[in-house]
Write a structure and sequence with these properties.
Pfam families: 5_nucleotid_C, Metallophos
Protein name: Bifunctional metallophosphatase/5'-nucleotidase
Number of domains: 2
Shape: globular
Family: Belongs to the 5'-nucleotidase family.
Keywords: Hydrolase, Nucleotide-binding, Signal
Helix content: 25-40%
Strand content: 25-35%
InterPro entries: 5'-Nucleotdase_C, 5'-Nucleotdase_C_sf, 5_nucleotidase/apyrase, Calcineurin-like_PHP, Metallo-depent_PP-like, Pesterase_YunD
Number of strands: 25
Oligomer: single chain
Structural class: alpha/beta
CATH superfamily of the largest domain: Metallo-dependent phosphatases
Number of helices: 15
Length: 466
């Protein structure tokens, strides 16, 4: 006898609810259909369901996301970095207290106290006909952030080595829920032949029909639930092994909306509006925001960053603010709309010559006109760089390019050999936006504060009527 095991999954929703009513309806119907046919079926989420760019996630600090997952009927989830490092310690500790599903993340550990009750390294489930399935979740080890919040993420490979033999002995099928990224998934598949299936995320890769690496099926469904994933594993009870593996993704835009989910989302939006409606400041005049011009608000925000971090200098890109502030009462909802990024302050150490290269790069159109998606940035474009604690003298040559003439740090010219502490947005410590910042060996991140928390301070200090 052969038995089919059905797994449906989502990954990297990032609180982008545009397709959620369609996805929710599809998952509910598929699970209901499979169960009605006496087939074994489970729903998984691979992390980054929460993203504080959305007012619902911001207002409820992820709890509303869990409520939405409960409503759909998820069985198991793992956590992504957006759950792990954008929430204060206590909020992550209690995030899944009311979850109707199990949470597996074998490499997440609490530094300061016992593990949360919901946190399990592995989960074992059984099919209708008794096939034992072991599920293990892993998340990306961003310990420079996690440890500032009282958590530690152990190395994924070491964690797998710790649990894989036990899972192999006690279960028939092993599934990894991996919020590690495609390269890590492929490496794990090469090293751990015991793993039958890796459902992935984090790097937003889309594998429409999966990918086989050795005997492991790897799959993932992109981002924002534009697609829903499905895996079908076929177990032969006589041979006592899996004999077939299939992976598919379904385009969510073709699916019907679930009216109950639409109503629930609307209720959450209304409640979020109330929670975020608290006044922050009252202003008489509109506050101008420009991406390619110096403005008072960006200068004040950059000054606040320098003062708050006690850095020698600071620099921020004007594209962090997405809209102007209208006269009248400014609420937390306005702050969140105008600065939605889950971006933290950071201080790096740079030699003077490295800082000069950063300044030069920040003046180029390649950077200021870059349309960035990712690294926590949720805006449209990088925009002009604003400086604090330093005066940058430039000259525009005949070719239209702006060149650095000289840089003053306080009352002194920049010293190429001196080390300076430089405050900026943490997005510049990733990738190659500003290589010198990314390569700095000393990085001090500030958590759980976001730059919008400093924006609140700036508005109250410099723009309030009171």
């Amino acid at each position: 006898m052969q038995e089919k095991l059905f797994f449906y999954y989502t990954n990297d929703l990032h609180s982008n609810f545009e397709n959620w009513t369609r996805v929710a309806g599809y998952l509910k119907k598929e699970k209901e259909r499979r169960i009605a046919s006496d087939q074994s079926c489970w729903l998984f989420d691979i992390g980054d369901h929460v993203d504080r760019v959305n007012p619902i996630a911001e207002a409820f600090l992820g709890k509303a996301n869990v409520q939405l997952m409960n409503d759909v009927g998820y069985d198991i989830a793992t956590i992504g970095n957006n759950e792990g490092i954008t929430l204060p310690h206590e909020d992550l500790f209690h995030l899944y207290d009311d979850a109707d599903f199990q949470v597996s993340c074998a490499n997440l550990h609490n530094i300061t106290e016992d593990e949360p009750n919901w946190l399990k390294p592995t989960v074992e489930i059984k099919s209708i006909n008794g096939i034992k399935i072991g599920v293990i979740g892993l998340t990306a080890p961003f310990n420079a952030f996690y440890e500032l919040l009282g958590w530690h993420v152990a190395p994924p490979i070491e964690t797998l080595e710790k649990y894989i033999n036990g899972l192999n002995e006690s279960t028939d099928v092993i599934i990894l829920l991996s919020h590690l990224g495609i390269s890590e998934d492929q490496e794990i598949a090469r090293r751990f032949e015991e793993i039958d299936l890796i459902i992935g995320g984090h790097t937003h890769h889309l594998l429409r029909t999966g990918e086989m690496v050795n005997n492991t099926l790897i799959t993932a469904a992109g981002k924002h639930c534009a697609f829903v994933g499905e895996v079908i594993l076929t177990w032969d009870h006589e041979k006592e092994k899996l004999v077939h593996k299939e992976a598919y993704t379904t385009d969510a835009s073709d699916l019907a909306k679930d009216l109950h989910t639409e109503k629930l989302l609307q209720e959450l939006i209304e409640k979020a509006d109330v929670l975020l409606g608290e006044p922050v400041v009252t202003i008489k005049e509109p506050i101008e925001v420009q991406w390619f011009r110096h403005t008072e608000i960006m200068q004040r925000l950059t000054d606040t960053l320098q003062e708050w971090t006690r850095a020698d200098v600071a620099l921020l890109n004007a594209g962090l603010l997405l809209d102007q502030f209208s006269p009248g009462v400014v609420t937390y909802k306005d702050i969140h709309r105008i600065c939605p990024h889950p971006v933290n302050p950071v201080v790096v150490e740079l030699k003077g010559d490295e800082l000069l290269e950063v300044i030069r790069a920040s003046l180029t159109k390649d950077l200021t006109e870059l349309k960035l998606k990712g690294f926590g940035f949720r805006g449209e474009i990088i925009g002009e760089m604003i400086f604090s604690g330093m005066k940058v003298e430039t000259v525009v040559q005949d070719n239209g390019h702006e060149y650095v003439k000289q840089v003053w740090i306080g009352a002194e010219l920049l010293d190429p050999e001196q080390t300076y502490s430089v405050a900026t947005a943490d997005i510049f410590t990733f990738g190659r936006l500003l290589p010198e910042v990314a390569k700095s060996k000393m990085k001090k991140y500030f958590l759980p504060e976001f730059l919008r928390d400093l924006l609140v301070v700036t508005l109250r200090s410099h723009f309030s009527n009171h």
